[in-house]
Write the structure tokens for this entry.
Amino acid sequence: MQRRDWLKGTTAAGLALLSSRWTLSANAAAGLSDRFPALADAVLARATSLGASFADLHLMQTDSESLFVREEMVQGVNAGSSLGCSVRVLVDGAWGFAASGEITEARLLALVDSAVAIAKGQGGWRARPIEIETLPAFTGTWELPIAIDPFSVPLEEKVERLLGINRAAMEKGASYCNSHVSVVRERKWLANTFGTRIEQSRVRIHPSFSVTIVDPKKGEFATRSSLRPPRAAGWEHLTGWDAAAESALAVEQAKEKMAAPSVTAGKYDLVIAPSNLWLTIHETVGHPTELDRALGYEANFAGTSFCTPDKLDSLQYGSGIVNLHADRTAVGGLSTVMWDDDGVKTLGKEFPIVKDGVFRNFQMALGQAALIGREGGSNGCAYADSFDAFPIQRMPNISLQPGPDKTIKSDSLIADVEDGIYIEGNGSWSIDQQRYNFQFTGQVFHRIRDGKLDGMFRDVAYQGNSVDFWKACDGLGGEPSYELGGAMNCGKGQPQQVAPVSHGAVPARFRQIKVLNTAAESGKDIAAAISRPEGGCDCSGANPSWA
């Protein structure tokens, strides 16, 4: 038996055992929709009788699976499933919360007692009472529409799909290639004392690969990772992607990177593709405009925020053409749901964070708007990542809006640059403890000279601060150039919660942005390769780092 066949066979057997979890979890959850109304009535009645001014009941089922393949080998499978419940109460202006993996009426009533006791125990030391707005009551169900359930796809098909990506790269001369796909299925039930009774489910998927080229004579290597974003979608998101063609292209780009000159540090005009810009939006606009972070209630993962409430409606966050909108309704958006985890209906709660360059809104969950005197209450930004997690304010889909001219694309923006860099794909990043000063790398750095792409650079990182960077934006692609990027694993909170979020963007041009040479910053001797070339080719290269 070939080693590859043995690995595939043993992994298949392992996944067959693990996949029984989906069946067990599905069986356990199968009757919940029928049982839920009675369970909710019992829980909420008990909470009210014990003095709760507000209470809600959450049930959540989560299935996840990740498959990893390197060259011609299946490296492994991670799979998991969970099902449980939680009760949240507001008593005398304090929150109480309790959760369990057991969903029975007796257990739920005990959770109510525990949550109420926790809330009452805070009476002697809390700084101020918590107040929440009254929410409309909603009833109904919502399911993310998908074409193919990824959990129903046979393991053999998944493995062959990933192996095909690796084969295409290896045939083009890659030294190594690894590929993977992760899928998550989420199902939630929510009831509260406002009268809401809702159920919703969604699926998300992230396929990716990374190719590596090694030059043993120089002792150097270069990599290029895929540009395919995660998406709220089914297996069709992978089958609709010509991953083999992209992996072959990635090899050619990694090869060129090996021969490309190291960038000279200085100021350049940058044209940034959506595949890179989504992460910049996430870090320089998304996290700074979380209200809990701005108020100092949240400081995990890079601190608080420079974007404080006194700057609302006055801070010039970007140039006049910059509009960054938030929603939980975008088709394919990782944050897209019908209702958030406070029970707020998301349709109609879309809002501008930056409008015509001016800072206009924070992201808010239940009870937060009143803290800064804003009317309208929550804008639908609550999320809990598991059944035993308290819902906190989490990022919606936040996207850079297209410019008015639909004919403008990346090449249009490049045409007006004499000396610059066109950046594709996201790489490593860093940002300070106020979400203000930052540094980003990428995957592919094309040199721009006299309005055209002319070879590529390596060792590129761009640096600035959140406000000056967006003020430097003077060109935007039109609606046809809009793309949705994002991540499945945005971290926040203590204990940590992980949330999926998408960021749409168009190609955008930024004038005179500081560019660093990452090799020089790390102390590497690059004197022999640092000059700007007088000629080049039309290929592109890659940055090896990823975060």
In short: The first strand starts at residue 54 and ends at 70.
